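We treat protein structure as text, and this decision shapes the records that our systems exchange. Because each token names a local backbone shape, the row as a whole describes the fold. An entry from our holdings is shown next, in its original layout:
>
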Amino acid sequence: MIKVEDVTKNFGGIRAVDGVSLEIQKGSITGLIGPNGAGKTTLFNIVAGHFPPSSGRIYLDGEDVTELQPHELFHKGLLRTFQIAHEFSSLTVLENLMVVPGDQPGEDLRHAWFNYRRVVANEERVRERAREVVEFLEIPHLENELAGNLSGGQKKLLELGRTMMVDAKIVFLDEVGAGVNRTLLQTIARSIQRLNRERGYTFCLIEHDMDFIARLCDPVIVMAEGRLLTQGSVQDVMNDERVIEAYLGTGRKHKRVSES
């Protein structure tokens, strides 16, 4: 589904991503791991259109999308979330979901004045879809809560829910588990698995919690110092001496990667 071909990104004299080539298969939940500074988030930003690569190409379903902007990729079904949730804090959870779909007739003043029934009918359809999303995410008790009052984990769930308001093909999740308590983390994991199985979502996620990665991801891709280090099953990469050295340093291969 996604093909990254020899992508490099320079920031001045720093090469943050160095000739990375990889593929994300349709229907997979792919993990992207590596020590801090490995270039993971920079690669996400390139694929999602936030940064242009210094060199290399990005393909979505065989189409070259290297030059496309985030809103253009959004309409093609490529979405991403961020380490820090970007909610509309003064809107309710339901309202945060309802603003996601594009090209709503209520956004056009002509429809608002002259085709009011169409605007109302569309708003009701969007509202119903938003209510289905909060039910799916197991947070119906929060639908009328201001998003600014949510906990960090609840905001991560809300961001995941926003991807459900459009016809997403692939979703990039950047540290979806960071700062989330274990109960909410289980809810997030179940939601990702259900979206993958029941709705055909493809996921790629950056995460430092190796238990979370082990539960969800196959395959796992490892980056270090801007380069692709290895990829394979969770067990394979956790037992790879190069991965252990990248996380922990030479001679500490018997420690778990998740201790980093």
User: Anything to note?
Assistant: The first helix runs from residue 40 to 47. The longest strand covers residues 14-24. Confidence is low (pLDDT under 50) at residues 250-260.
